[in-house]
Amino acid sequence: MSPRRNLKQISKRERNFWALVALSLILAVVTWQHGSQRSDSLIADPANPDVVISAQPTPEYDCAINNPFNDVAITTWTTTHTPGSYNATAIDLVNNCTYSLGNPDGRYPMASTGKVMIATGVLEMVANGILDYSSIQSDLTAMITQSDNSAADRLYAIMGKAAPMQDLEVRYGLTQTTTDRGWGTTLTSSADQAKLLNQVIGKQESPLPEAQREVLRTLMKSVVPEQAWGAGTNIPAGWSAAVKNGWYQSVPGDIPPVGLWRINTVGLVSDAVNTPRWILTAYSNEWPSQSAGISAWNDLSALLSGALGK
Questions:
Q1: pLDDT tens for residues 44-78?
Q2: What is the pLDDT of residues 2-33, one digit of tens each?
Q3: Is there a contact between 286 and 84 (Cβ–Cβ < 8 Å)?
Q4: CB neighbours of 99 closer than 8 A, spacing ≥ 6?
Q5: Are residues 295 and 256 in the same domain?
Q6: Alpha-carbon distance 251 to 107, whole Å?
Q7: Beta strand 276-284 pairing with 261-270
Q8: Residue 169: exposed, middle, or buried by beta-carbon count in 10 A (0-12, 13-18, 19+)?
Q9: Same domain, 155 and 191
């Protein structure tokens, strides 16, 4: 008999056989797709790879439960330091949690933390081809690593002073920051400065390109040791902090309260493999002495490190 047969010549038994084969293939595909969609909740038994057992999904990180600024810790901190009016913000960059302390409506003069905004402005000009980096490198380095006020004045003038600074506030979404005076008396909040820091040296995208972010990050990691307090202290061994601090005792004619100290700190902490872990920013202008404010922010940094530095 010839191997070629007309479809009509195929027996009923053969038709049933091929129908079963097709059905089996369809069921296999459906089962595979269903399994792949549930891969987050099903795992193979290591002792028997052909057996699949259920696995509970990883619970979502609870920011509130893991708040490093818990009531007991902060009660102890405030009792010890009596900070007056202040606000502080921490961003856990690993678990995407933001924590706030103090008076959320408080606005404080930036003092030398305003130099981060100046640096952002002139580095944007470098990125846009308006400035050559070599023309500002010396002043930028002195301004950030040594908090040189004369260098800051020159760079502030180069960027155009208040009007361009106000434009920068809009670009970076700084809704609680008001520039209408000099760079040191710009009013701001810790929340705004945490937002800025995350955009210029942290993980959030921003108008500042990565090449210029790395320049600023490196400079802030090179602050002279005597100025690296606050957000740059009490971190785990082998870790690093990119920090900029501000300190100033108010005199008659300044934004009140007169005679007290503005002590501010902003910083990004990275672990031993250079992964950004958290941001801390803290502002107040009511410290009775420079050492009182520094001690308070050092202890707040230690509290944060104890919770997140693992």
A1: 445 544 444 445 566 789 999 999 999 999 999 99
A2: 444 444 444 555 665 555 555 555 544 444 44
A3: yes
A4: 63, 67, 68, 69, 89, 90, 91, 92
A5: yes
A6: 18
A7: antiparallel
A8: buried
A9: yes
